[in-house]
Amino acid sequence: MLDLPQAERQAFTEGAAPAPHLDLVHALSFRAAGAALRLGVFDHLGDDPRPADAVAAAIGGDPRGVRVLLDALVGFGYASRDDEGYRATKAAAWFGTGYRSAFSFWHRVLVDQWADLEKSIVDGTPPRDFYGWLGANKAALEEFQSMLGELADAVAPQVAGVIPTSAKRLLDIGGGHARYATACCLANPDLRADIIDLPGSFDAGRAHAAVVGDRIDFRETDWATGDLGADYDVVLVFNVLHCLSPDRAEDLLRRAGRALRPGGTILILEETADVPTEAGALGAAWVPVSSLNLFHTQGGQIYGRDQFAEWLGGAGFAAPDETPISAAPTFTLFSATKEATEGRTLNAAQRQMLVFDRVRPDSTWYNVPLTVRITGPLDVERLRTALRLCWQWHEALRSTHDGDTATLGALPVLREVTVPDEAALAELREQELRTRFDLANEPPIRATLAKLADDVHELVLVTHHIATDGYSLTVLRQDILDWYGDPSHSPRAGYWPKPSDDHEADLAFWAEALADPPEDMALPFAAPADPSLAADVVPFHLSSDVTTTVREIARAGRSSPFMVLLTAFGVLLNRLGGGSDMVIGTPVAGRDDPGSESVVDCLVNMVALRLRLDGGATWAEAMNTVRSTALDAFDHTGAPFSDVVDRLIVSRSPHAHPVFQVAFAAPPSVDGSTTVDGVVFDFVSGTSTESLFDIEVQVFDHGDDMGGYLKFRTARFTRAQMTTVLDQFRTLLGGLDPAARLSDALLLTPHERHRAVSDWNDTATDYPRESTLVELVETRVDERPDAVAAVYGDEVLTYRELDERANRLAALLRERGIGLEDRVGISLGFGANWAVSALAVLKVGAAYVPLDPAYPAARLDHMCADSGVAIIVTDVVLQDSLAFPADRVDATLSPDTLAYIMYTSGSTGQPKGVGVTHRNIVRLVREIDYVHLGPDDAVAQVSTLSFDAATFELWGPLCAGGRIVGIPKDDLLSPPELAKTLRDNDVTLMFLTTALARRLAATSPDAIAGLRQLLTGGERMDTDTWSRLRSVPGLAVANAYGPTETTTFALTWAAEDLAPGEAVPIGRPIANSTAYVLDACLEPVAPGMVGEIHLGGDGVARGYINRPDLTADRFVPDPFGAPGSRLYRTGDLGRYRPDGLIEFVGRVDRQVKIRGFRIEPGEVEAVLRETGRVVDVTVQVRVDEELLVGYVVPADPAESMADLRAYLAGLLPDHLVPAVLVAMSALPLTQNGKLDVAALPDPFAGAPTSPPAEPTTEIERIVLDIWREVLGSPTIGLHDDFFALGGHSVKAGQVMARIRAELLVPASLRLIFDNPTVAGLAAVLPARRS
Predict the structure, then answer these.
(1) Pairing state of beta strands 662-665 and 869-873?
(2) Domain 20-128 is in which class?
(3) Fold of 164-337
(4) What pTM was estimated for this model as a whole?
(5) What is the third-level CATH fold of 1258-1324?
(6) Secondary element (H or E) of residue 913
(7) Are 439 and 400 contacting, i.e. CB atoms less than 8 angstroms apart?
(8) What pLDDT shows up at residue 13?
(9) What does the H/E/C string look like for 121-150?
(10) Residues of the chain with CATH 3.40.50.150
(11) Which comes out higher in pLDDT, residue 64 or 875?
(12) Taking the C-alpha atoms of 968, 973, 977 and 979 in order, what is their torsion angle to the nearest 10 degrees?
C-alpha cells in the first residue's frame, strides 16, 4: 500500500511537520461537496433544471435537508438555481472525474480535524497533525489510496497516449499502485516497466499489474535518494514532486535525467496554481490557499511551469511542453526530451585541471589521498555497500571527463588485497598515490581495501581533485560512516551549483586589487625555477599553548585563527626575503548555497590575497590589514580564478602557478577516529607527491591543538630549509604580541641567536690596532734594513732602499703642501714605485688614490675631482723626488687616519670612492688567522693598485718583513712564465681572482706547484676548480671573500674536501672581523635560510667619499657591537651552514663580479644613455661566460653597434665595456610592463628576425594561418611567442584542435607549451597523414 505521508514527511526531516490547515472556506466547501457526492446528489443534477423535491426523492432524502445542501452547493458554485429548479455548473462536472473521491476524502479529513480542534479547545489536548491522523486511521488511509487510484484511472488513458510508440523501457517513480505503468504497457505491447517506490507500497499495485504479466518489475527503493537505474526511454514522475522541498525536487529531476538515455522523455504530472476559469469563483474550493491543493497534503509544495522549466534545463532537457488533463483539470502534464549532449558542465577550476592533465599527462599533482585504518570486526560487504552508495549519490565520483563536461560512467570497484606487513602497505599507498588517473575513461576515485590481519584493515582511497576538494573529504568521511552504520540512511539533499550574478563586478575587483602586481615570489634561498613538480612534505604541530594564543588573538581582533596564522606566515616570508608586497593564494570552499555543504565535488575556488606588510607596523595593525584583505577577497569569489588570470593577462606555464607561488589554507580536518558497531575507523588525510606551488601550507584545527604540513617543490628547496621555516613559524607564533612591532619579532630561539651573534663571531685577537701602517713598516725597516722588500723583475729594493725612496717622495709632497688626509693620486706603470709611492703618501698623513693609466681619461678626471686629488705621483714626480733628502718626515697620524680611496663601480654611471683607514689595513695583515705571513714569505703582486687585492699584496709582506714579488700581466697569463717567475723568486703566497684560478686549475695547475699558500676570490668558486687546486701537492688553498668597503678580505675558508655538488663556502670571519647573515630587520637568519651578508669589525671602511646618503644607507649601526660600531651591508646574499660557515648565494641587486672586478650593470647603462645615441638600453651579465651584453634601442636605426662599442671603450674601463651590443627595435616587456629578461635574444644565436620570416614549408603555412585566425592578428610571424601574443590555454586548445583536424596528426596540447612559436611547433609536428 502506498504510504505517501512517509514520503512527504521526508521533506520536513529538519523541522516539525506543519500544523493542520483549517481554512473555513475549504472546510465548508469540501464538506458540502463531499456530502453531495456521498448522497449521490450530482447523479441527479445536470443541464436541465430539477426541483429540490425531485432530487430528494431520487436519493431518498428529506426534502428540507436536501434543499439546504443544494443551496450550499449553489453558494460554492457547484450548482445554480432559478425558478425552474437546480442545475449543475461546469465545476460540478468535475465530480464525475478523478476528483470524486477527493472531495469525499477531504470531507472526512476536515470533519475529523474540526472535532480534534474542538477537543483541544476544551481539554487542552494538542491536535494531531495530518500525518499522525492518517497513520492512525486505517479507513482514512484506504480512502486516501482510493482517491489516488481514482485519479490515476482517470488520467492514465491520456498519459498512455503520449508515450512514444518506440519506447521499450519505462520507469515509474513513486507509482506503487501500478495504474500508470499498467495503462502504458497495455497501450504498447513492446514496453517493459520498472516501478520504484517506498517499501510497503506495492500490495495493490502487484494485483493491478497482473493483467500485463511479467512486463512490470517492482523495486523497493527510496526514490528520493536512491539509485534510479539507467537507459530508460521514458520516466514518469507523477504526483510526487509536491512532496519534496525545492532542493530535493530539483535533485530528483536531475537523477531522473541521468536514468534516461539521450533523446528519452520525462513526463511530470502535478497540480499547478493554474485553475480553469470554468471552475467558477467560490466553486473552485481547491484553489491553493496557503500552498494547498486537492491532492497536496499539508506539507506539500506547488511548483509552476517556470520552476519546472528551470530545473529541467539544468538537468539536460529541452524546454518542456505542457498538456492539460481533461479528466483532472487542476493537473498539468509536462513532457521534455533529454538533450543528446550528455554530461554535467564543469566549472572553471575543473576545466583548468583538464588542461593541466593534457599538458602534463604524467603528473599526479591533483591526486588526493585519504586512508582509513579499520580495526575490529569489519563487515566487508557492509563497507562495500557504503562505498557503492557514496559513489551512487555523489555523481562526481563516478564521472568521466572529456571536453568541458563530466559524463556518468561505471561505478568504481573496491579492490581487495592482503598485505604481509606495514612496509608492504606503505608501498601500496605510495603506488596508489603515484598512479595517475585516466580522466577520460575511468572514475576519478580508486579504492583498495588492504587486509593486514583479521581485525586490521586499511582502506586506501585516492581521488582526483577534479571530483573533490578539502571540504568534500569531510562529507565523504561522514557518508562512509553513516552508510556503514545504516545502509538505509537518507543522505542530505543534492546540490547543483549555479553561476554567480556578480561575475563581472568580481573581476573588476580583482583587476584593481592585483594591478601592477609584485614579481613572482622568489625566496632568495630557492634554487632556480625547474620544470619538475616533485614535492615533499614536512608535517608540523602547534602546541595547545600556541593554539590558545592564536585563538585568543583572533577573538580579540574580531578575526579568525586562519587570518592570524596567515599574517604570521606572511611576516615570516617577508623576513625570509619574500618582499613587503606579496601575493599568497588561499582556497575558498564555494559552499555558501544551501545544499552545497553535503556534496562531494570540486567547488573550491582559489583567491589571491595581496599582503602589503610594513615592518614598522604592530602585529595588531598587520592582522587588521590581513583581515580586511581577506574579507574583501571572500566577498568577491564569484569570479573563477582562471577568469581572473585571463583578465590580468598573465602568462601561464605548465611549470609554475600564475599570480602566486605560495598557498596557505586552513581546511576542515578529516583526521580522527570514529567507532561504528564496534569497528574503529581512523581517517588520515594526505597530499600528492607533486605540486605546482613552490610552497603550500595546510593548517588543521584538531580542537585542543593545531597541526598540518608544509609542502614544497624539491627542485627549489631542501627538506632542511623547510624544516627551518616551520621552526621559525612556530617561534614566531609563540612570541605573538599584538602590541609589538613586526620588526622586533624574533625568528630564532635565544640559543640559536646567541650562536649566530656571538659564538660564530668570536674572532678578537691581540693585534696592533693602535698602530699605523707607517709605524709597522718602519719597524720592519729598522729590524731588517738589508732584507729584500720588493722584487719587480730586475728591480730589487731592500727595506732601507724602499724607506729612503719613500722618504724622498714624502719630502717632495710635504714641500708641495700635502698634509693630513690630503688626496694624492698615483698613476704609474707596473713596478716597485707603486710600493714607494703608497708608503710615501702615508708618511705625510695623506691618502693615496690609485689611478690606473689604462682607464679612460674621463673616468680618471671624475675620480680626481670627486676625491679632491691635490697632486698626482707620476714617473716625473718620482724623478724630481730624488733631489730631496732621505730622512723620515714627521707627521701626526692615527689608526683612524685615511690611508687610501679606492673607486668601485656605481649604479649612477659614476664610480664611488671608498675611504679606507690605517686600522682597516692593519686588521687585514697583522695577527691574522687565514694565511701565514712572516719574514720568510714572498707574496706575489698580480693586481693593479686600483684593485683592492693590491692592499693585501703590498701591506701584507711589508708589515710582516717579507717581500713583494711583482708578476707582470704577461707572465700571469702565460703558465710557463708564471711558473718560472714563481719558482725563481721562491714565491710562497699568491692571490688570484677566481677566474684566473679557474683557468690555471683547468689548464696548468703545475704552474703554481711551488706555492705554499694560495688565496683566491672575487667570484663564486666552483667545486671542480676547488678540487683541482686542492690536488696541487703542498699547496694550502683558501677561498677569500670581502668587498672594498671592508678592506679586501672579511671571510676566508681553508681548503677541505667537498662532496660532489657541494657549494664552496666563503668561510668564517677573519680575525678581528664579524660577519652576519641578516634579514631585513637586522636579525640573524637560521642556517639554510638566505639573508644579506653584513660585515663588521675593524675592517669596515670609513664610508663613501662625498656620499653621506649612500654611506648612511650601506654603513649601518651594528646592533651587536659596541656603541658607535657599524656594519657594512654588502648587498650579497648568503646563508649559514649548520656549523656557521657562510655560503655566498648571489646579489640583492644586479651587481656582480667579473674577472675580479665588481660590475654594476646600471653604471654601464647610465653611460650609454649619456651618449645620446640610444633611446633605451639594458645591460645583462652572462656570468658563466664572464661577459656583459648590452641590448640597445639606437636613436638612429642605422647606428653601427661596432662603432658604438668602440665609443664606449673610450668612456669605460675594459671590464665595463660589453662584449657585444645587440640592436633592437624595442626592449621586450612583460605583461606588467617590466623588462622581460627571458625574452632578450641570445646575441650569439643571431639577431631577431625583422620583418617576420615567411613560411618556408606547407606545414609552417598551415600552422601560421591557424594562429592568425585564432589569435585574430594577421601580422604574426614565425618566431613570435604564442603566449606573448595573448594566447592562453583555451586558445591553445583551439589551435591544437585545428591542427589535428587539418593535418590529420595526433598533436597533444603540450606541444604548443613546449614549442610556443610557429616555426618551433611546425618542426615537431608528426608527419602529415594522407
Answers:
(1) unpaired
(2) mainly alpha
(3) Rossmann fold (3.40.50)
(4) 0.69
(5) 1.10.1200
(6) strand 912-917
(7) yes
(8) 34
(9) HHHCCCCCCHHHHHHHCHHHHHHHHHHHHH
(10) 164-337
(11) 875
(12) 100
